[in-house]
Amino acid sequence: MTDRYAVIGNPIGHTKSPLIHGLFAEVTQQDLVYTAIEGRIGQFAADVDAFRAAGGRGMNVTAPFKLEAFAYATERSPRAQMAGAVNALKFEDGRVIAENFDGVGLTRDVVHNLGCPLKGTRVLVLGAGGAARGALLPFLEQQPATLVIANRTLEKAEALAKEAAAHGPVSACGYADLEGRRFDIVFNATSASLRGELPPVPASVFEPGALAYELAYGKGLTPFLRLARQTGVDRLADGVGMLVEQAAEAFAWWRGVRPETGPVIERLTVPLT
Ligand code: NDP
Q1: Distance 162 CA to ligand 1 centre (A)
Q2: pLDDT digits (tens, 9 = 90+) for 17-49
Q3: Does the pTM exceed 0.90?
Q4: Annotated catalytic, 119?
Q5: Most exposed: 102, 163, 189, 209, by fewest CB within 10 Å?
Q6: Is 90 exceeded by the pLDDT of residue 82?
């Protein structure tokens, strides 16, 4: 019987997940269908219950339901616990097992696809929302020399740094405190780019030869990437690789086979111009 999977979010019209998982299923010859569900606000549990009752085996979860998925789960991985949010669910008998693959997908994209090891580097993360939370443990596992979280709302960055302190050299600051500091890798994990805005990051944060990574994807040259380019940074990336890598992690977790990601990333890449 064909197994059923889906991504749930609201809105969901923009999602690339059915395309990505469809391509993965094709190349790995897995018998499954993967659809998109527009979840009803306030009705997350009922919508997931209905999908499970109809034979659903697993789900990806996107905004605004990542916290509700955390609450819905009966078991949560350490990554999901650190993130406080869930982007993948697996249904086994009565169990609802929760994972968060965003951070591991991002790390894999940076280290493997872009050939940029985090070990021993100075890493700056802009933003302290869900994506930053999810990235923290996978980043620290790579043993950077320092990891600084800068956020508009300083308390959120401080709380996150405190939570992760046992796992590595992580600290928090406001944007103004970044003056005079330089980093080898700068991640824009704010949602500013989704509105064409630039977080108030000083242009001086980029070390010559730095990588500037925008977590948003498909937006071309965002204000953050433009700032990096203007300061002479030529290693620019957006989150398309992260998107495809987190999908591959979920696919492997559900199906026991990891699809090749390169051709799918290539297919979804929008030029950074
Ligand atoms: P959240 O809403 O959880 O967090 C948003 C963060 O952005 C907060 O830290 C907020 O600061 C900050 N922020 C928003 N606007 C501005 C601004 N104008 N200036 C400075 N800071 C700002 O979002 P997510 O963490 O879920 O998403 C963050 C980004 O990551 C988005 O672009 C999203 O598209 C991308 N993403 C990409 C994925 C991929 O697969 N490629 C997967 C998941 C996310 P404050 O706390 O002060 O409000």
Answers
A1: 20
A2: 999 999 999 999 999 999 999 999 999 999 999
A3: yes
A4: no
A5: 209
A6: no
